[in-house]
Amino acid sequence: MKNKLSLQQMQFICQQLSFALAGGMPLPNALLLVGTEMQPAVCRRFLLQTGEAVQQGKTMTQALQQSEIRYSPVLLEFVLAGEQNGTMQKTMAQAAEYFARQNQTKQMLSSAMFYPVVLLILMVIAFSAMFLFVVPTVVQTYSNFDAQLPAVTRSVLQISGWMRANWPLILSAILMISGILFFCWQRMRTNPVWKMRARQFILHIPLAGKLYQQYWFVQIGQAMGLMLSSGMLLSHCLQAMGQIYRRSLFAAELERLHDDLTDGYSFEAGISKCTFIPEMARQMLAVSEQTGALPEALVQLSQYYQKQVQQRLQRMIGLLEPCFVLFLGLGILLMTGSLFLPLVQSYQYLL
Fold this sequence. Notes:
The protein is an all-alpha fold and 351 residues long. The protein has 15 helices and no strands. Helix 6 runs antiparallel to helix 10 (208-229) and helix 10 crosses helix 11.
């Protein structure tokens, strides 16, 4: 049974709760009413369990913490802010907006990366099939040739023979590399030193580094802006961000920013050390914090950089697609040409 809420489901839940609360309905009744009509079953179970717990005297925060259904920790922070400030209806509307933008960003990344990934997989399958199945069927024909084969043809035959003889070794190497990459990924998520090195490495990659920086600013900026708009204090908001993104490569920077503000440093001094904030955004946030417009600035900047991320992704995909197609075409042309060139030469010789 599915036991996790998707971004789209959380958006719909918060939206419906916001509508019910706007009509003056008490929170327990709103949870039970929306839950009764909610589809799919995981959403209905989530709302009904939460509504029953709230009806028994628990806060919604306590009910969510005890829920057996997994959800984004951002939802818990929004609910906590709504309870502390008495603005649950407004907070649910802002949470729905946050999840809608997160879902939009996720879909944008998925659609942008789908074509290159599929094309890359097809390239690997095509070349593997050629070397493992097509080339060996032609080798028997070449064995009857007395003339020396072209160098390209000999190279293709050698690669094919090596792959057929060592395919268990190749498969083991792929599995080993996958295991090493998985181990490094886990270390980056848990080890601060590995996180710092990985962050520095990624941010210095041309094009991809800038895109990665802007993507994370969109993620963090959206949540911070909407949480601050709901009435949450900046220090509490940063503490919540540290918990939500504790596994990201920028978790240490969020924690340091919170500690700097707690120690009395200005917000401007704190964000100057955050590498996930672009330079232009850093300057605008410093001014906005002084004028009291920090929540609005975070929301607007996150929207601006979300469009930037989308444009950069489209530009990168636009460059990658013809490169993949050209590489695939040249590879197949080279391989088929090297295989059938001796046949053409032998035919001309017979004539």
